[in-house]
Backbone:
């Protein structure tokens, strides 16, 4: 592949800025300033967005651009509550060490280049480690299935100071993903969320698009249910048709 000429690079970046600026779903505060395109078609995308939905949408728009063959994702989510890395690590430490669903995993924390064992199972079925740098949580390791991989990522997103979650955990059944598996993970997320009445929400998935229906008593619960779906690894779109009412 021949390298892109500077004039072509400029036109692509300008067109991408125009597409991003014209997308109302990204919000009025979104700024498409942190864009640069290498001659080999690699796009470096830096931005801060309001939520995971906006992050995934912005990256989808970028990936659809002609001549963009890869994207370096530096799009970060504005944290719900500002937290330092040490505070985020403390929250993750508690969540990963105490959650019964993770009892069969060995868990390690990477901090300042050093690795510390947080919990160790006598009959471990997987290993994970986590690190936080500038509010970005990076997860690695291996687990038996996609459901637990997605759940570990969800717990990281639920820490209010998290700006991004890079889920590099390898699942033993990665090649067996399906709409049903995604729906299973979304239902688990809703059931685990103490602020959402999961029994009132129905989940449907086609390809990687999640459709939520049902009734919830408040707009806040409706919004939290949608966020839970967006947090699930592999979800590309969420259609929220939950009605608000008694």
Residues:
């Amino acid at each position: 592949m021949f390298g892109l000429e500077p004039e072509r690079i400029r036109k692509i970046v300008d067109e991408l800025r125009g597409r991003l600026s014209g997308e109302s779903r990204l919000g009025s505060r979104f700024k498409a300033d942190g864009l640069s395109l290498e001659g080999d078609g690699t796009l470096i995308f830096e931005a801060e967005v309001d939520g995971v939905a906006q992050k995934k949408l912005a990256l989808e728009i970028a990936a659809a651009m002609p001549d963009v063959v890869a994207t370096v994702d530096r799009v970060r989510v504005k944290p719900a509550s500002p937290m330092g890395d040490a505070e985020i690590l403390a929250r993750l430490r508690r969540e990963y060490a105490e959650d019964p669903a993770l009892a069969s995993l060995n868990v390690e924390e990477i901090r300042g280049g050093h690795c510390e064992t947080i919990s160790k199972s006598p009959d471990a079925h997987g290993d994970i480690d986590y690190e936080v740098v500038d509010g970005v949580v990076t997860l690695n390791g291996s687990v038996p299935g996609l459901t637990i991989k997605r759940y570990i990522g969800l717990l990281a997103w639920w820490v209010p100071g998290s700006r991004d979650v890079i889920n590099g955990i390898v699942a033993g059944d990665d090649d067996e993903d399906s709409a049903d598996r995604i729906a299973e993970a979304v239902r688990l997320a809703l059931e685990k969320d103490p602020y959402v009445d999961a029994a009132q929400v129905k989940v449907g998935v086609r390809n990687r698009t999640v459709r939520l229906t049902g009734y919830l008593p408040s707009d806040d619960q409706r919004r939290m249910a949608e966020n839970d779906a967006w947090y699930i690894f592999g979800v590309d779109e969420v259609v929220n048709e939950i009605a608000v009412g008694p």
User: Anything to note?
Assistant: The mean pLDDT is 94. The first helix runs from residue 6 to 21. The longest strand covers residues 42-49.
